[in-house]
């Protein structure tokens, strides 16, 4: 059973088909980036998982069950949704204490969760004076309160400064890779999550356009390019071309497409040509993302 399972999920708001037949899963111990431009349907999908949106058809399950069927929801799934509203007059501590009481969780969890998100020092301060970044951390603390093993985070980096984003990345890694949690994190900015996600699901106009690992996303977006350095480029180049490669010379480096690393290495060995470097160029992920989501201009990005 997958920690998160979305199957054939569809939801319309009047004439707008916000989510249109979307299916994907998130496994324990992994981070999945749910990516797409503004209005793509990300929030609607995540809200369906949390029982806040009733789907027209299909299902959105956490630990094999609908959210309303979970016995102890806060201990099974933690969520950070966009535009979380906190009562401004309440302290950070009291926010979490209310949650703990309602969910019959031990009071000690309040301090632990505040500690985990770095808000222990301001536990007694009213949320009124909190910066956007502090509110995001408090939202994360509410997600953590029941120590769940599934996390649904909608644009959690919003309002965080670069140091905050760096911290958030480390935190998500810790949850998934050290604590074995399943993390589903949405973003409309690929660069925000590309360093940490194991898998990517891309959605545009309500439809799933691509899913897989980051590496698959790049290699499907264009033929991989291998950079090859050799003291004898003039000898290697024709040899590679005889084997069907396209070769471009940039200084003393050959940029090779149409052959993989093993193929190039084998040819060099046969020809007794020394190679001093061979690396696969990283494709331009952002470009692939923009192409897939039809956002060529990048307008609407933060
Ligand atoms: N409650 C609602 N009533 C009417 N339309 C809605 C509602 N919720 C979402 N929509 C519409 O559904 C579409 C998908 O919205 P959704 O918020 O799921 O996208 P998103 O990918 O999360 O975008 P963003 O990054 O801007 O939050 C949009 O066209 C949006 O206007």
TrEMBL record:
InterPro entries recorded: AAA+_ATPase (IPR003593), ABC_transporter-like_ATP-bd (IPR003439), P-loop_NTPase (IPR027417)
Coiled-coil ranges (or none): none
SMART domains reported for this sequence: AAA
Alphabetized Gene3D superfamilies for the sequence: P-loop containing nucleotide triphosphate hydrolases
Pfam families: ABC_tran (PF00005)
Keyword annotations from UniProtKB, A to Z: ATP-binding, Nucleotide-binding, Transport
Occurrences of domain ABC transporter (ranges): 4-230
A GO term, aspect molecular function: ATP binding
Annotated SUPFAM superfamilies: P-loop containing nucleoside triphosphate hydrolases
Domain of life where this protein originates: Bacteria
Family membership: Belongs to the ABC transporter superfamily.
The protein's name: ABC transporter ATP-binding protein
Organism: Nonomuraea zeae
């Amino acid at each position: 059973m997958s920690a998160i399972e979305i199957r054939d999920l569809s939801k319309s708001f009047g004439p707008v088909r916000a989510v249109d037949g979307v299916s994907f899963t998130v496994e324990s111990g992994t981070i999945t980036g749910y990516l797409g431009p503004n209005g793509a349907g990300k929030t609607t999908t995540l809200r369906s998982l949390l029982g806040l949106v009733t789907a027209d058809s299909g299902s959105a399950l956490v630990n094999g069950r609908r959210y309303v069927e979970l016995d102890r929801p806060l201990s099974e799934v933690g969520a950070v949704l966009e535009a979380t509203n906190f009562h401004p007059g309440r302290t950070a501590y009291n926010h979490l204490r209310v949650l703990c009481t309602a969910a019959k969780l031990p009071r000690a969890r309040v301090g632990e969760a505040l500690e985990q998100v770095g808000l222990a020092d301001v536990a007694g301060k009213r949320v009124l004076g909190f910066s956007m970044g502090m509110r995001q951390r408090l939202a994360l603390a509410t997600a953590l309160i029941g120590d769940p093993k599934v996390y649904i985070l909608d644009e959690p980096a919003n309002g965080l400064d670069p140091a905050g984003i760096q911290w958030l990345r480390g935190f998500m890694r810790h949850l998934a890779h050290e604590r074995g949690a399943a993390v589903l994190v949405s973003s409309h900015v690929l660069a925000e999550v590309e360093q940490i996600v194991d898998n990517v699901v891309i959605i545009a106009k309500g439809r799933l356009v691509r899913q897989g690992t980051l590496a698959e996303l790049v290699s499907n977006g264009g033929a991989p390019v291998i950079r090859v350095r050799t003291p004898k480029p003039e000898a290697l180049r024709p040899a590679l071309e005889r084997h069907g490669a396209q070769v471009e010379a940039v200084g003393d480096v050959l940029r090779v497409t149409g052959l993989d690393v093993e193929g190039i290495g084998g040819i060099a060995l046969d020809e007794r040509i020394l190679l001093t470097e061979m690396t696969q160029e990283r494709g331009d992920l952002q470009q692939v993302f923009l192409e897939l989501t039809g956002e060529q201009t990048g307008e609407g990005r933060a």
